[in-house]
Amino acid sequence: MLSKKRFLAVLDIIGEMFPEAHGELDAKTPFQLLIAVILSAQATDKGVNKATPALFAAYPDSKQLAQANLSEVEALIKTIGLYRSKAKNIIKTAMMIEEEFGGEIPRDKQLLQTLPGVGRKTANVVLGDAFGIPGIAVDTHVERISKRLQLVKQSATVTEVEEKLMKVVPESEWIVTHHRLIFFGRYHCTARAPKCAACPVLPYCHFGGKISSK
Ligand code: SF4
Q: What is the pLDDT of residue 214?
């Protein structure tokens, strides 16, 4: 397993590779960010960003989306995977925000997770990027990198990955670490064909070492 000291050294290297790492979903308000993150489940940010301008032009806030017609919302997001269930979820989410939270996005992980389509990862992204509340959202990239670097066991659950990262990384660095790991996974340590031969992290990486020695 990779020690805390070595993992922090890896994070420094990744920070140098991607100093500008940031959330890539387009949104003008916390509500729009919440909706964009719900839509991004099992879809690319790029694909979501293509659909949301028209969606947010028609339904810019929770009040409007709560009253939306399901088939009209489906038509606006039909290029995004699982659009039928996502259309239902975002309308229901908007209704709950209006009816249960007075039109405000709750700034609480547990409360956010009561909204349809909102899991731990989505809640962490919204809290971090909309409100600056520290958290580490573990998506497919963060999980893969944590496992390749042997920060956690291969069998670790998403929650275990999140807990380990929160233990190892100082709280003030949680949000930026989440974005840097996502950029690193999206553009360098990709699921297929990671760029191990040109990776400054290779000396720390068991997975990359195995690939390189083949
Ligand atoms: Fe990812 Fe390869 Fe770099 Fe390891 S050496 S971090 S697997 S790109």
A: 60
The pLDDT tens digits of the residues spanning 163-190 come to 999 999 999 999 999 999 999 999 999 9
Place of tokens 């958290």: 135
CB of 207 within 6 A of ligand 1: the answer is: yes
Task: Give yes or no: residues 9 and 61 share one domain.
Answer: no
User: Does the active-site annotation cover 121?
Assistant: yes
Answer yes or no: is the C-beta of 199 below 6 A from any ligand 1 atom.
Answer: yes
Ligand 1 neighbourhood includes 194 CB (under 6 angstroms):
yes
Domain that holds residue 186: 4-20+136-212
Final residue in a domain of this structure, among 131, 159, 180: 131
Residue 115 lies in a domain: yes
Kindly name the residue from 121, 147, 153, 164 that is annotated as catalytic: 121
